[in-house]
Write a structure and sequence with these properties.
863 residues, homodimer, 17% strand, elongated
């Protein structure tokens, strides 16, 4: 068994064995880039380490053997004062892992070597030794940093120094003595003066850090297996702190924030790499290097080009300049903003580096949603510190004055406002629409607020659990900051960050052009059809502009929530006779008819799937504080209202008196909606349109139940067709959102013209998991690795997916089948739905573009 | 096609064609019993009638042809004044159907025939004619009865008559004239003086009445198909109103109330059959006939014996004595009380009429539950009128003083009380246990109150929607009656009837002996094992006495609701540190340990399946009006309590923070329950018992989830075994109550030692139907024939059953599988669970006997 590899022995595809860093170092070494020599101790050694509960002699020997080889390669000697080989030791797991032990520099330094080195370059010698002790104490020994880097900071502060450069040689020497004193004091042993002990301890420390608390937590959160293990890279030191012709820096082959094709990065003269990241001095922009060391700059430019071309993606590199000579210490695929990623992809295509399919593969589905949103100015962001971070529920930046109630949000139409709520209810929709952004304390990525927000494209953060709201005093408190109503805050729904004050927003004009470029490519490859969930003409238009193939879900209840209509809705619910109810329904019918007409106009000849009234009626009734007003307005006694509220209140509304159960008890509601829809369709024909309407019955769980509702609808349609002497094609289908409906598919498919799988409710029922309440315990489930992600985000193939697949495969005939609900816009779900042969997915208008991209991605993968 | 059959042409098995009445008349005619001659117009004719929208000439001709034959048989002539054939026309569907047109007597009477008959028997002549017009007007023409029978009542009242017999001949003649006048007045036509017209109209009226509103409603409620149709019987009249040697009566071959083997019935001298039923005169008991006409009595006795033997069941007969001659007009299987039915079955076996299997077939599962209950005295019942009728949720009679809160119920321990509530919550359990009976306004047969009531054997009526409760005034209003706290009421949980005052209760000693007789037979045939759901030693004892094979479900949460324990439970929930929580859990552990010890003692060596804490924690927190007291008692600030209540409140608690989710967030609860159970088992071993314990994890929906909880439990057990140096066999299994758990059975069965299907929650989730809220719309579903019965009563084979079957058949290995939940005691469900091969069902202790009977029934059917 081989546990250690020279860089030259590996390549970029050996990540599992060598870790990401090791594989890239190997690749670069083989590309003959100027990479300091070294070797990688593999992840296999890590497993063995845990198996043996320590580093075995076998592995130790192999390390020493490779170290000998390294001496040969570098023509230096380990533990040799005249020509010392010093090394860096770095962890490198196959997947990038914050929280693990990262880097120790200058390893191999001893007192003797230091003194010898000091003869020619005292600053470098003492500075390097100081750094070694500091890092070793911290990351290998786990000693309190206040005695080392903290002590140094104090030391400089007392002397008024702003930079390490200000330290005199004597002071550096003094520091080293102090460090050693502290080291002995804390651990009871001397700082090891044996380079071999330093090396073996450092390697073991890396392996140990694989299982430290932060790393474990990170893996749990990210769903990364504990079994991967980490590798360790041992590399010859080069010295950015040698002299004024030396430097350390980081470099991106293109701008990772804007996507511009310009070398981007920064560097520090006479410094080691950690200084750039740690911010002890302010680094210079990379352009400055062009002036100081034009040759080195050119070398960097060429290397960046070469690596980007070689890896086929924008690179993030670390480099060191050692006495005017350039070394590349690391390269990896650059992190980037969504906008930058899209620009990279389009530029790569224009540069002939990738083809259209390459663009589709490179652009992430989550990128596109962001392209439609205003974002915060990069500079403003840089200068602002997030007060807290919640869940990025609906992307985009928003800034405005704080308000705490939906009512206030509605009343501040002329001002930009941010609505802050503990949680939201359906009646907050008006308020949400009036707000620039929404911030809630509770709720997850698929909570009611989040779904509605994404539907309407309102930048939103949910589950910001650290915020404290006092509705009485109208204050928002985050940590030590308290904001009053009317104070400005800014929220970034793309990251989940909350900021104080007013951040500048950048309009998305340029990004819209990019979006269209992407979609014109997507169009050629997408397979499963994408429709949108839309309730208004604005949403429908937005969806069609993004290329939706119709509306997969009109939630008709949303049409009743505005101020004018809710009055009649409530009077309808409170009607004491059938006649009264019908009178109010007649008024609502006119509203709804014109809504439907508008929708058909936007979408025709593509289909409009109208879901009949779904939520429990109590959701429409006034809240306690609205009862008095409503009573005055409607002339209905308060006690009658209260009685009805009590009568309709439910223990488990999600499984209560809703869906087609409403139509069955109150046929007249179903008749009204049918009349409104058919009359709208008839009118649209007169206007030269081709209405394509599908009527969707919600919450079906029984054959006779669907038949009953279908009969009412058909009877109404037949009468209207007869009265107007027309015939319009239509379908009557059902949501499949109860497990029973899926199980009864064989029979239901005989009488339903289409299915729309309601994945939200189907997931709730299949799991027995209330979306609105899951926040109480889901974190425990994530912490304990039980659920790896929100069960509502991607379709659960084992349970919910199995039911959908069963419903599809057991259907008695071929009928249109699609998905509405949030999973309609999710990549993994789209992949599954494509695989089992569904016809379409329907998602919120803002996700249409990304869903289409996912559709194309899935198609390309399947080729 | 033959549409009309002489009685002699049919037999009892031709019910579908001849209807029940026709088939029995045919059977009796063939037994050569003295049945008036006649013929039956078949259900086929009924279908043809609806097809043709009227009676076709073909059928009319066949009727007339059979009428000719009847003239020959009776040696009388239709429409002949000198020797007139009069007939009765009666409906008779294959299934007994109240609400349909029933009977017209004396049909064929004309003015001329009446006058001729009056020459020899004027009273009979005019009385019969009067009756014909009255019935014809009512049932054939649908005229307002106030002008006929109502007019007669007025007529008698004015004259101070108490009986029809008091009417003089002249008055009878006057009545006939008045009737005819009214008849003309209402319908604008004369009363038909043509016997053929009378006959055809009457037959058509029967067919029409098949589709009258009451009949349709009845069929919907009972789940009877509209397609069966009804038959019509035309039968020669015999005259119970001929003279003082004539009579009409009803007779049971044994006593249908008590089950005693004595001829039971009543009769009226000189009356037609309807008088007995209508109660215009008070009938005489049948023993009286023995004195007056001993020969006729003997004839009746012999006929009853003959028919009972022939049909193999107790018969309910109608008879007429015509001038001293006995005629049997009808026989059918007698309705009976549950107690009577059991007695019939046991007596039949003793008389050698049926064997043991016959007993099992004859006794209904619902009978046995009643045998354990006190019932109301028959006489008291006869003299009381039910004020309203709710759902018979838990059988047995109860009488006591009204109270309106659980608190008051608990405080009145020395008195018999009836608790009346709008609905019940888990905290009402203490109150329910203190009450003799429970009456609720809302809730169905499977509502929380109903389930708990059956578990504890508390006679209960739920869903008594007509009652009005005013908690402030402490009044119960039913119609015009208002009761105050402390007033006596009586409720009959077997029938759902509510009575004013204090009805006498009869103890069930005798019936308990009968129950044991039945169970000793059942024991030889039962197959699927029956266990019980029991939380206390009393329940466990009751269950074991009824022959339960262990406890299939201990709901541990019930152990925390009593006054002493709830305090610690609440403090545990409100604990602000882990230590505080553990301190309270340590107290609860001791309680629970002793509970478990008691249960093991009752049940060992049979298994005790302990379900870990299941309900959402907010169910344990104080109600608004208890907060102040609890705050004082516990020393916890009110606002802390309120905050916790708010924090834990849920939108859909059924799918919320409950089940194993509690154990996952608060491992320590799960640890506490494990310690309590294992310590109890260890103690029981020291007491020489053989504990057989199974640990059940509730609400599992995931593989990792179950593994996680299992690991906690096993770790705790291992530590205890080590500490006490013992080993006790145990199982760790799970409820299968989410659809996902059923779908993941292949994997879950690898790591769970047993399954218990929780049919209540599985039904809720599969249907998307909240048991607590379904009352709002289920009636619409029944009315409209969508659900034929409560989805929670019997297992839904298409949906829920399919999931259970899938879970069973896809399991990776053979593990114990059973059902807990109300369906465990339901016959149809037991049949299904036996078919798919489950090992046991578990039901409330009071249903164990009936479940065992069902188990035996199913086994016999499958032979």
């Amino acid at each position: 068994m081989k546990y250690v590899y020279y860089f030259k022995e590996g390549n970029k595809d050996a990540r599992d064995l060598l870790g990401g860093k090791g594989a890239n170092l190997a690749e670069m070494a083989n590309l003959n880039l100027c990479v300091p020599n070294g070797f990688t101790i593999t992840t296999k050694a890590c497993h063995k380490y845990y198996e043996d509960n320590g580093l075995s002699d076998e592995i130790k020997n192999e390390i020493l053997e490779k170290l000998k080889g390294l001496e040969t390669l570098t023509k230096k000697k380990f533990n040799d004062k005249s020509n010392p080989l010093l090394v860096s030791v770095r962890s490198g797991a196959p997947i990038s892992m914050p929280g693990m032990m990262d880097t120790i520099l200058n390893l191999g330094m001893t007192e003797e070597i230091c003194e010898e080195m000091a003869k020619t370059n005292p600053r470098m010698a003492y500075d390097s030794y100081r750094r070694l002790i500091e890092m070793y104490s911290d990351v290998v020994m786990g000693y309190d940093t206040s005695k080392f880097s903290g002590y140094l900071n104090e030391f400089k502060k007392v002397r008024g120094y702003t930079s390490d450069i200000d330290l005199t040689i004597d002071e550096l020497k003094e520091l080293i003595l102090k460090y050693k004193e502290h080291y002995l004091e804390i651990g009871g042993s001397y700082f090891p003066d044996d380079p071999y002990i330093q090396l073996i301890n450092a390697i073991e420390a890396v392996f140990k850090s694989w299982n430290n608390e932060r790393a474990i937590t990170y893996r749990k959160v990210m769903g990364i297996s504990d079994l991967i293990g980490t590798a360790v890279n041992v590399q010859e030191m080069v010295y950015g702190n040698k002299n004024e012709k030396s430097a350390s820096g980081v470099l991106f082959s293109r701008n990772p924030a804007t996507g511009e094709n310009v070398l981007t990065g920064e560097f520090l003269l006479n410094a080691q790499g950690e200084d750039v990241v740690a911010g002890v001095r302010t680094p210079e922009p990379i352009e400055k290097l062009k002036e100081i060391m034009p040759d080195v700059y050119n070398g960097l430019y060429e290397t960046a080009q070469k690596l980007e071309a070689h890896y086929g993606d924008v690179q993030d590199m670390e480099f060191t300049i050692d006495d005017g000579r350039l070394y590349i210490l690391q390269t990896r695929t650059s992190k980037r903003t969504p906008i930058a990623n899209v620009k990279f992809a389009l530029d790569f295509k224009n540069e002939g580096k990738i083809d259209e399919k390459g663009v589709i593969k490179m652009v992430k589905d989550s990128d596109l949603e962001v392209l439609l949103k205003p974002t915060f100015d990069e500079n403003d962001l840089k200068n602002s510190k997030a007060l807290t971070t919640g869940l990025p529920a609906s992307p985009g930046g928003a800034t405005g004055k704080l308000v705490f109630t939906s009512e206030e949000a509605k009343n501040s139409k002329l001002e930009d406002i941010i609505l802050v709520r503990e949680e939201t209810s359906p009646e907050d929709i008006d308020g949400m629409l009036s707000a620039k952004g929404l911030l809630t304390k509770t709720g997850g990525l698929t909570s009611h607020a989040a779904i509605i927000a994404r539907t309407f494209g309102v930048p939103t953060i949910t589950g910001a659990s650290e915020i404290e709201i006092d509705y009485n005093r109208k204050t928002l408190t985050i940590g030590d900051n308290t904001f009053n109503e009317g104070d400005y805050i800014s929220i970034d729904g793309t990251t989940g960050n909350v900021y104080a004050g007013k951040l500048k927003l950048v309009a998305p004009n340029e990004t819209k052009i990019m979006l269209n470029d992407i979609l014109s490519i997507v169009k050629k490859y997408e397979k499963i059809q994408v429709r949108a969930n839309a309730d208004t003409k604005e949403e429908a238009r937005l969806a069609m502009e993004s290329g939706a193939k119709g509306i997969g879900l009109v939630r008709t209840e949303h049409m009743f929530f505005n101020e004018e209509r809710i009055l009649h809705m409530r009077k309808m619910i409170l009607a004491s006779t059938l006649k009264e109810r019908k009178d109010e329904l007649a008024i609502l019918e006119k509203y709804q008819e014109s809504d439907f007409e508008e929708l058909i106009k936007e979408v025709s000849p593509y289909p409009v799937i109208v879901r009949y009234l779904d939520p429990p009626l109590h959701e429409f009734l006034p809240k306690e504080n609205e009862i008095e007003d409503f009573s005055k307005e409607s002339g209905i006694d308060e006690w009658v209202i209260r009685n009805k509220i009590k009568e309709l209140s439910e223990v488990n509304p999600m499984m209560g008196f809703r869906g087609c159960r409403l139509a069955i008890k109150y046929n007249e509601i179903c008749v009204m909606q049918t009349k409104a829809l058919i009359n709208a369709a008839i009118k649209s024909i007169k206007n030269g349109l081709k209405p394509n309407i599908e009527i969707m019955i919600p919450l079906t769980n029984d054959i006779r139940e669907f038949k009953y509702v279908r009969a009412i609808v058909e009877k109404t349609i037949t009468a209207l067709f007869k009265a107007y002497n027309v015939k319009i094609p239509y379908k009557i289908g059902t949501m499949i959102e109860t497990p029973r409906a899926a199980l009864l598919s064989k029979e239901i498919s005989k009488i339903a013209d289409f299915y729309s799988f309601g994945t939200n409710d189907l997931t709730q029922l299949t799991y027995g998991l209330s979306r609105d309440d899951a926040g109480k315990f889901l974190n425990s489930y994530y912490d304990k690795n039980i659920y790896l992600s929100d069960p509502f985000k991607s379709v659960d193939e084992l349970g919910v997916g199995a039911l959908i697949k069963f419903a599809k495969s057991s259907a008695s005939r071929k009928i249109e089948m699609g998905v509405c609900g949030e999973q309609g816009g999710d990549y993994n779900s789209i992949k599954f739905f494509t695989k089992i042969g569904l016809d379409y997915v329907s998602c919120s208008p803002n996700r249409v573009a990304s869903a289409r991209l996912s559709s194309a991605k899935v198609q390309i993968e399947n080729e």
